[in-house]
């Protein structure tokens, strides 16, 4: 779906953020770089991306400290707030004229979804107690008038269309006549559908500007297909210059668009997104909420889960089992080895250490581990008998010598391993007595 890929990319970025301590400038820069790439790949306009990432960076490095949130959550929160901001901030409602009828003009490229939107908007308004009428001023596309009559019928609202021989070929006159007709029939909203072209052209824009001048609309809604990607900004700017729209409607948000149009248009034009269209049927339509859209892009629920999972580091069940072993003094060298192997499996040990629950205490020790050390540890432990692994107290001098020889290590290596194991077991036992180390609470976002 739209934003699917962007959501995944952002989630990956946040997942890699440390949850403890303070983010370093390097952490922040790395994250901002990934966000920048994700936004550019989603077709968000370069200027918008630059400003967005600069603000996120500045805020993430700033003193904005919220004690209830860990560093990763704070970055997510900042990104969320900045997304809301570039999407227009507050929800912008449709503006009605003080004296009806409210005149709404639709403009946009052909195929953007104007005609469909006219029907959706009319139905939505009618449900809300209004008495809208549609005006077919798109005389360019052969079937446009007919299509508007069909959606009008589906929405249950009247459609004003040029009579054969009267106004055909003159969209400005049709638009004016349509508004006059609505006034006379006491409809309180008039929605004027205008012609689009496949690309922006001067003639189309002049026609739209002429209609705007003739009917003096309360709202001019620029309808834009979220799928048009990189062209969104140029198209939006051309329409802003040409008809000076008052609001934006994003269509086809149900499609596989990368979403850049949605994220760029409001920001680049300074005009709010008023509605979103999410399908072909008349009900697939909703007022646009910047905050909801941002949450959807960030997939906040999912991201929070990911951060939680990262905090739990590895399989929670396994962690509980290990804690239980510490508490009951049944943690063995086999378990020790297994834990280390698990760490290795999960990639960089050092990176993982920051995410292990209760790892702070062991961090110092484990921080010094390297791949070779795991290999050595493996060799040593595998040279032990089952009895020795289960009960390291059996490890007297002669057994240690035997193990050293068997593993190709020195007795000192063996001694060090046993000491480290005992220290870890002792420390973890203390921690475990107070229960499993608590994960830091997930604060509100
Ligand atoms: P117009 O040329 O701007 O009037 O565009 P139309 O209203 O004729 O729409 C062009 C095509 O896009 C039609 O096939 C519509 O059914 C389709 N369409 C319009 N809005 C949406 C939407 O939100 N989602 C999807 N999937 N299709 C849409």
Automatic annotation (TrEMBL):
Residue ranges of domain SRP54-type proteins GTP-binding in the record: 272-285
Coiled coil feature spans: none
Keyword Ribonucleoprotein part of the UniProt annotation: yes
Keyword terms: Cytoplasm, GTP-binding, Hydrolase, Nucleotide-binding, Ribonucleoprotein, RNA-binding, Signal recognition particle
Residues holding GTP: 108-115, 193-197, 251-254
Subcellular compartments: Cytoplasm
Enzyme Commission no: 3.6.5.4
KW Hydrolase (keyword) present: yes
Enzyme class: hydrolase
Lineage: superkingdom: Bacteria
Swiss-Prot/TrEMBL catalytic activity: GTP + H2O = GDP + phosphate + H(+)
Family of the protein in this entry: Belongs to the GTP-binding SRP family. SRP54 subfamily.
Domain comment (free text): Composed of three domains: the N-terminal N domain, which is responsible for interactions with the ribosome, the central G domain, which binds GTP, and the C-terminal M domain, which binds the RNA and the signal sequence of the RNC.
Subunit structure: Part of the signal recognition particle protein translocation system, which is composed of SRP and FtsY.
Main function: Involved in targeting and insertion of nascent membrane proteins into the cytoplasmic membrane. Binds to the hydrophobic signal sequence of the ribosome-nascent chain (RNC) as it emerges from the ribosomes. The SRP-RNC complex is then targeted to the cytoplasmic membrane where it interacts with the SRP receptor FtsY.
Protein name as annotated: Signal recognition particle protein
Species of provenance: Luethyella okanaganae
Lineage: Bacteria, Bacillati, Actinomycetota, Actinomycetes, Micrococcales
Gene symbol of the encoding locus: ffh
Included stretch of the parent chain: 2 to 446 of 527
